[in-house]
Design brief:
The chain has a two-stranded antiparallel ribbon with strand order 1-2. It has 4 helices and 2 strands, in the order βααααβ. It has one domain: lambda repressor-like DNA-binding domains (434 Repressor (Amino-terminal Domain)). It has 66 residues and is mainly alpha-helical. Helix content is 53%, strand content 9%.
Length: 66
């Protein structure tokens, strides 16, 4: 399973889900689904999210130990 730190990074920047969604061009519901691990973003979307946060993809997404 691919985990992420989106919620933490949003909190550090005081961004809402809607603000992040607007920055990357997707819906707020998509951000919710990614944060709750119901949806794994495409590589392109993962890059867009990383660019929005100005961090590398590996600072956001990581593989959970099984």
């Amino acid at each position: 399973m691919i985990k992420n730190r989106i919620k933490v990074l949003r909190a550090e920047r005081d961004w809402t889900q809607a603000m992040l969604a607007k920055k990357v061009g997707i819906s707020r519901q998509a951000i919710i689904s990614i944060e709750k691990y119901k949806y794994t973003p495409s590589l392109e979307l993962a890059f867009d999210i990383a660019v929005a946060f100005d961090v590398s993809i590996t600072d956001i997404f990581y593989k959970a130990e099984v």
